[in-house]
Specification:
The complex is a heterodimer of chains A (37) and B (225). Chain A has 37 residues and is α+β, with helices and mostly antiparallel strands. Helices cover 30% and strands 8% of the residues of chain A. Chain B is of the alpha/beta class. Classes of the chains: A alpha+beta (37), B alpha/beta (225).
Chain lengths: 37, 225
């Protein structure tokens, strides 16, 4: 399991940190049955 | 997921756009239609993620243009919500399976000309790329030329095991996509690392410089369709 998934939580701030690392200004938040209800 | 995405977007509207979700095969049923109303009217979400492969949860019971789906397409079109759709080749998982969904979706677009579409993932390389060029069937081209539609530039992470960084094969195909469809239609995508970041950030920077123009960020933020 990837290190970042040791904690099964994903607050918006985690995504912001990853966006900053990747140089992404704006993201679309995907949704799907595979990610839970 | 719909609620969580709305929660995140409410906190960071300048950085995040949340998409709603439905049980894809049942999207035309009253319960799912009510969820769309809730997401649009109450949560204020303006886009929906639709994964064609999730039709498998119900055994691919009917095609995308089936009567059972019509209320869904009609609602999304009437609301003006952006449809972010990821195609599949299931249940046969071959080129014919992929094209069957494309053909059905083409018939949906013919009925709903104003449907705003964001096609997730690039055209499948294995079926449509030959010698560094895409060879699109006419049926697929008709869908790609729908207006308004943008095409996400993302290759499956499995190509990292076939091509070497910085993926010149992908760059050639992206340039061909630009030439065939126009520079304003492909949009560079970058997926969350834990789902599979397909193009390394530096490769994206190289593409922005050499293959695709720098995007109009204001437009990209406000209107993916």
């Amino acid at each position: 399991m990837p290190v970042g998934m040791q904690e099964m939580t994903a607050p918006p701030e985690l995504m912001l940190a990853q966006m900053m690392n990747a140089g992404v200004d704006h993201c679309l938040l995907q949704a799907g049955g595979g990610y839970g209800r | 997921m719909t609620e969580m995405n709305a929660f995140a977007e409410r906190q960071y509207p300048e950085r995040m756009t949340g998409l709603m979700h439905v049980d894809e095969a049942m999207a035309g049923q009253p319960g799912q239609l009510a969820e769309i109303d809730h997401a649009f009217d109450v949560l204020k979400l303006r886009g929906l993620y639709f994964n064609v492969d999730s039709l498998s949860r119900h055994g691919f019971p009917w095609p995308l243009d089936a009567p059972q789906m019509e209320a869904f397409w009609d609602k999304i079109a009437r609301l003006g919500a952006v449809l972010c759709i990821e195609f599949s080749s299931g249940p046969s998982y071959d080129r014919a399976g992929y094209m069957a969904h494309i053909a059905a979706f083409g018939r949906v677009l013919a009925r709903h000309a104003g449907l705003r579409v964001h096609m997730a993932m690039s055209p499948p390389v294995a079926w449509f790329a030959r010698n560094g060029r895409y060879e699109f069937p006419e049926e697929l081209l008709r869908v790609y030329r729908h207006e308004p539609l943008v095409l996400e530039v993302v290759f499956p992470i499995s190509y990292g095991g076939i091509w070497d960084y910085p993926y010149p094969e992908a760059q050639t195909l992206i340039a061909d996509m630009r030439d065939q469809l126009g520079a304003d239609r492909p949009r560079l995508g970058l997926r969350h690392a834990e789902r599979g970041t397909v193009l390394h950030v530096q490769a994206v920077a190289r593409l922005r410089e050499a293959v695709l123009p720098v995007p109009d960020r204001a437009r990209e933020r406000s209107d993916p369709g």
